[in-house]
Amino acid sequence: MEVFVIVVLALVACSPSAEANHCPMCNKWTPFFNRDKPTNLGDFELLILHKTENPGQICAAPELVNCRRLTGPPRREIISIAADHGLSCYNFLQPDGQCEDYKCRYCCNYRYPSCPRGYRWTRYYNRDRPTGTGDYETLSLINQENPYARVCTDPIAIDVRVTRTGFDYSTAGEVVCLVPELGFSCVDAQQPDGQCQDYKIRFCCPNNY
C-alpha cells in the first residue's frame, strides 16, 4: 500500500500513521540507491528497479524504506513512499513544478539461522569463486583444503551469505542447493543470467568437535 506524505528533510515509511522515531529498529540497512534524476516526469526511486539494477543487495520484502534528498535547502514536496514501492515524486504535483533528487535505502531485518546451546558457529569459509561452472562451498571440499582446521562432519545448521553484501543468500534470488551435512552449491547454468554470485558459508557444530 502506498502512503502519500509531505516531506521536508528525510522519510522513513513504516505505516500510514507512523513517524520516523516510532519505527521498529533495523538491524541491516542496504546502501542508499539513487537511480533517477528529477527530469522529465519526476524522480522515481522504485523498489522493483533498485532490485533489478542491484541484484543481491535488497531482500525480497523490505520492512522499511528511508529516503533523503541529495542536496539543497529544506523544502516541502508531495511524494509517494512505501517499503514495498520505494519513492516516486511527480514534477507536476510540486508547487514549483520540480521534484528534488532523492536517494533511498531499505531495511532488511533478516532472521538468520540460529546455533543452539551446546553448539557454536565456525568461521566463514569462502573457498571458491563463481568463475568456473559455479560457486561450490561444500563441506567435503572445505575439509580437504583445511586439514588442520576441519569442520565437524555432522553440522546441524548452515549460514550462507552473499560475500559482497553480507546479506542472506536468499536475497540473490538464485537457484541454489544447501544442506547442513553437505554445504552449499550454486551452478552458473541454472541461473537466469548464467552467473552465480559469490557466497560464503559457516557451520553450526558441537562445542567439543
Automatic annotation (TrEMBL):
It comes from the Eukaryota. Pfam families: Mucin2_WxxW. Keywords: Glycoprotein, Secreted, Signal. Residues 29-108, 121-205 form the WxxW domain. GO terms for cellular component: extracellular region. It is found in: Secreted. Residues 1-20 form the signal peptide. Its main location: secreted. This is WxxW domain-containing protein. It comes from Patella caerulea.
